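User: Predict the complex with glutathione.
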Amino acid sequence: MSCFSCRSATWTNRPCNAIDDNMTQPVPTRLFISRMCPYAQRTTLALADAGVIDGIQDGKYGDGLELIHIDLRNKPQWYLDEINLKGKVPALEISFPDTGATRILLESAPLAQYLADTFRPSAMTPLQRFDAAMVTDAMGSHFVPAFYGLIREKDPEKQPEATAKLLEAIRTVAPTLHPDGPFALGDAFSWAEVMSASFLMRLPVLKHYRDFDMPTDEPAFERFQQWIDAVSAHPTVQATTASVDDLVEFYKVMAV
Ligand SMILES: N[C@@H](CCC(=O)N[C@@H](CS)C(=O)NCC(=O)O)C(=O)O
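Assistant: Here is the predicted structure with glutathione placed in the model:
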């Protein structure tokens, strides 16, 4: 589908209202999420890190931004019709004050970046950006597919192979982490955590369904566990993460 207004590709049913550079900057108005979704959590992590939200309950937060949960197992028709016809979260509605026009933005990585740029312009150096991107890329290319590979592998005979792939993924991610830690780039929570923490926080689901434990017999695993521990204890992560019980229940259809 392409937007009849600016002809750009769009997954939504609405016109995107092509941006005119002279317009007043748009305002984020509604963020559609699910507390179960690690991609959506990237956006809430970005907002919590910027001090805009202190939890993920539905409602209006600073600067008038509203959080709205979408039940992924029972999506409302209006969400498909008006926001994202693919039915995925996260999605962000922004509004142009000059015209009242709105536009829907999709995809967690650029969305989290957009929210961070809007609410907390980054003081990261080019090298910090590079290092964060290396972590994010290794997580996205190796850890995330291996995580889903293991959770989806229902055949007990094939689970050891899927577990081995996850461990190999962790061996690939670990060298992208700062050697001393405890966070990915060193002693502070950073963009690398905004992009990756949500996936680490779903490891207890693998413990529940696949009895996955982080081995301790290699420096790579020790460093990765140190990262998990630092991330799990961070207030921004705690404020945006669903309970283990809820996550376990949500992933049941995938795992069992
Ligand atoms: N590439 C997307 C992935 C988003 C995604 O897969 N969201 C899942 C939940 S974690 C979803 O909305 N699934 C609903 C569905 O597929 O019906 C992003 O980064 O935003």
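The chain has two domains: 27-119, 126-255.
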